[in-house]
Amino acid sequence: MKALMRQFPKVKADELSYIEQLVQNFDESDMELFAERYKAQRYSPRFIMVMNLLAFTGFAGIQRFLLGQTGMGIAYIFTWGFLGIGVVYDLLKHKEMTLDYNEKVAFEVAQDVKYMRVEV
Fold first, then answer.
1. What's the CA gap between 9 and 73, in Å, rounded?
2. Which domain holds residue 96?
């Protein structure tokens, strides 16, 4: 766990424990590859919150596109974030939404690293 904390100093404990489960069988080179790719693709909750706040300037739905929820992003654009209710909901739930996205990304990156190991 301490090695993971050095690799991901800004990651919270719940996300870190999920990553720990994914990479428990990785050697050092696999872990470095995972860390490089995961850091490039993950979002911080603060970034998603800022993107959500842009909805109040007329850019509703950006956070949903970033989190891979294209349909909801389009719905937010055409309804101004469900008349603002969805935007407020997203502000309250931005940490959970970001954690869900980051866990999905971590899983996909871990699978890619495992696949690359098998190919070589």
1. 31
2. 34-119
Pairwise CA distance, residues 18 & 42, whole Å: 14
Of 120, 98, 89, 83, nearest in space to 11 by CA? 98
Structural domains of the chain, count: 1
In b/e form, how buried is each residue of 29-55, taking b as 16+ CB within 10 angstroms?
Answer: ebeebbbebbeeebbebeebbebbbeb
Q: What is the pTM of this model?
A: 0.90
Q: Does residue 70 lie within any of the structural domains?
A: yes
Q: Are 89 and 76 in contact (CB under 8 A)?
A: no
- CA 101, 107, 6: angle at the middle one, nearest 5? 90
pLDDT, tens only, 23-39: 998 998 999 999 999 99
